[in-house]
Every structure is written in C-alpha cells, then in structure tokens.
Amino acid sequence: MLGFSSYAVSLVELKALWAMNNTEAGLVASGFFLGYMACVSMWTAMTDRHDARGIYFFGCLLSALGSLGFGLLANGLLSGLCFQLILGAGVSATYMPGLRILSERLSGATQSRYVSFYTAFFGIGVASSLMLSGWASEAFGWRHSFSFAAVGPLAALGLVWWATRGDPPHRPLETQAGQSSTAPTRPLGHHAFFDLVFPIAAWRIALREKSVVGYMIGYAVHCMELFGTRAWTVAFLTFSISLQADVPPLEAATLAAITNLVSTPASILGNEMALKLGRRAWIVLVMTSGSVVGVLMSLLAGAPWWLVLGLVGLQSMLIMADSATLTAGLVASAPKEVKGAAMGLYSLLGFGAGAVGPAVFGAALDLAGGASSILAWAVAFLAIGLGCLAFPLIDRRLFGTSPFEKGSST
Fold first, then answer.
1. pLDDT tens-digit map of 350-367
2. Assigned domain for 271 exists
3. Helix 142-149 crosses helix 151-163 at what angle (to 10 degrees)?
4. Over the Cα atoms of the chain, what is R_g?
5. CA geometry: angle 56, 58, 62, nearest 5 deg
6. Residue 190: CA atoms inside 13 Å, Cβ hemisphere, count?
7. Residue 136 belongs to some domain of the structure
8. Which of 216, 277, 354, 373 could form a disulfide with 223, with the two C-beta atoms 3.0–4.6 Å apart?
C-alpha cells in the first residue's frame, strides 16, 4: 500500500506544477480507482480456479511499476493518470486475492476477526504511505516519494512468498441450477475473456442472496466517501491550516497520516461491535454518523487546528468502523462455489464508486466556489457522503425491516 497516498500528498503541488484545476486534479486521483476497477473482477474471479498467490505476486510487480513510473516519467495530467491506472491495476491483484489467500485458510468467528485485521492493515498501509510520501517529498521532492513507494510491493511479494504455501482452491463447476457438481461441465468463464472479466453467471448466483446485495451496495457508498475523503484530506488540512493564527507543529501530510493510523483500530473494534449488535444495525449507525461529521468538520475549518484535527480523526474512525464489517459479511454470506467472483464484484462496485469519489469531490469543490471557500468544502464532503446518508433507506427497502428489530442481524 506504500504508493496509495503518494499522489494525495503531492496533489496541491502537482496541481500547481501541471496547471490543473480541482476537477483535473481529482481525475488523476481517480485514476488509481479506475485502474483497480478495470481489473479487480478478473483477478478475483481467477482465484476460483487458480492459486491466488500467483495473482498476488503479479499484482506486486505491477504496483511497483506504477509507483516507479510515476516517480520517473510523469510530467502532466495524462501521464500521471496513466501511472495511477497501472498502480490501481496492481493493487487490484493484491487486495482481494490476498484476502482470498487468508480467508480460505480460516472459518467461522476466527475468519471474521482475521478479515477485520486484514482490512485494518489497509488503513495502516495508507498511514504508512502518507508518512513516507510526506517525508520523502519534503526531503527529496515529489518524484522520490513515488519512487521510494515502489519498494513496498516488492517487499510484500517476498513476505507472502515466504509465509504461505501453494494451495490451489477447490473449483466446483456450475450447473444450470447454479449448484456445484462433478459433471463434466466447463468451469465459469473457461472459453471467453469476457466471461473472465465479467463472470455474469457467477454474479447471478451470488446476487440471489439479499445479504450479498446489501453488503455490495453498502461497500459502494462506503468507498465513495472513504476514498474521496482520503484523496482530499491533505488538501483540506492545508486549507484549514492556512486559516489558523496558531500553526500546528507538523505538516498536513503527517497530520493526515496520524489520523489514519489512530483510526485503524476502529475497523477491528467495529467488527467486534457488529458481532454483538448485528451487522446491519452497526453499518447503518456508523455510515450516517461519519457523513454528518465530515460536513461538520468542513464547516469548522477555521476553528483551532486541534479541534479540526480531532474531527478529521473522528470522521476517519467512523468511516473505518464499518469497513471490516462489510467485507467480513460478504465473505461469510457469499456462496462458496462463486466466492471469488462475488468478492470481485464487491470490490468492482466499491472501487468503482471509489474512482468516482475524488473526482466528484473536486467537481463539487469547483462548482460551490473553489478551495478557498469553507462552504465549498462542506458541499464537497456532503456530495461524497450522500450515499451513506441514504443507506438506511436502502437497507430498509432491501430487507423490509428495520436493522434494529430483533432478528435483523444479517
């Protein structure tokens, strides 16, 4: 994950250097998610038929190429977007395939807890990326911050190779009824590249489960807010600091890294709370709360920096608090014979929405008055949080009951 936040740290500098407006700067940030979205379904569906380790290793190499290429060669909107696409494609071959490597070796409550730790380490990766990129950019320039990040995926390749053994998954075949069978029918997507990228038959099987549908919609609106916020947090803190009479002792990128790191346990603790209160109820509570805090903190951008930073940290914790719950719920509820395809669609929808988030944020910021307006920042945070605010209605429509009613813990 070391390359994940490199662009977010350098966004303000590159926006000026490459003469981009907020919408264009947001588009480059969205390039990561577009690359991720374009490939994730294919990589993850392949784990239904191949050892996920091979896919993971290729993703590490691709991620390193994206970061190193940006650091050495990027010189404008199009080249920056291109290398962000490559980086996203690489991470798409590591995140969900890595989760498949882990989840296939676990079951029950243990699986849910380990999935929550895995998801939490995504946040640790983001925080590490912010800290490395902020330090390297300050000390050596923005190109070095991208180049240094390429070491991370290569280290991940070595660690996973050393820590795991090959374990090709069981590969039930699909019959007309969607049940596993030993009959000599073809594996999903065996003869067509389109079927591999978009395994529609497998998706139909997964989407028969209402809980799977709920987790997928929830993850989509969650990711739009999460990645939109992460792409613009450093820029927001930079704006807030510019309004302060009392300047904080640390740079905006370091402050953002600290808030991300502090919020990491929220993912693990959130999953534990969901096991007690019910996943639906917990997801609805934290989704709506996070969006409200996001708008509030932007309206208070001119308040003392410690208060603004506290609200940034609170919002980050609330956003992370349902992340592991959504993913653990999807892994537990997806039919085993199409679990890889279901995880691929889940990630496709989530990171597809994540791809839109930074660009929507930037466009809303431009339309509402620009980055020098407190109200414009509030509108931008509201724009990426609308899906989360609407999710209680979506959940009620999907299941027909309140998530707080007895027996509604799916």
1. 878 887 888 899 899 999
2. yes
3. 10
4. 21
5. 115
6. 9
7. yes
8. 354
172 within domain boundaries: no
101: domain CATH number is 1.20.1250.20
| Token pair 């929550």: residue | 116
Is pLDDT at 200 greater than 80 in this prediction? yes
In terms of Cα–Cα distance, which of 262, 258, 388, 263 is closest to 317? 263
Q: What angle do CA 295, 348, 329 make, to 5 degrees?
A: 75
Share of the chain above pLDDT 90, in %: 42
Total count of residues recorded for the chain: 410
In a domain, 409, yes or no: no
Each residue of 60-115: pLDDT tens digit? 999 999 999 999 999 999 999 999 999 999 998 998 889 888 877 766 667 677 87
pLDDT digit string, tens, across residues 18-42: 999 888 888 898 888 788 888 888 8
Query: Which residues, including other chains, have CB under 8 Å from residue 24's CB and lie 6 or more apart?
Result: 15, 77, 362
Residue 123 has, within 13 A of its CA and on its CB side, a CA count of 28
Q: Classify residue 285 by burial, with Cβ atoms within 10 Å: 0-12, 13-18, 19+.
A: buried
Other Cβ atoms less than 10 A from the Cβ of 140: the count is 12
Task: Give me the number of domains the chain comprises.
Answer: 1
b/e burial code for range 5-26 (CB count within 10 A of at least 16 → b): bbbbbbbbebbeebebebbbbb
Tens digit of pLDDT for each residue in 278-330? 888 999 999 999 999 999 999 999 999 999 999 999 999 999 898 888 988 88
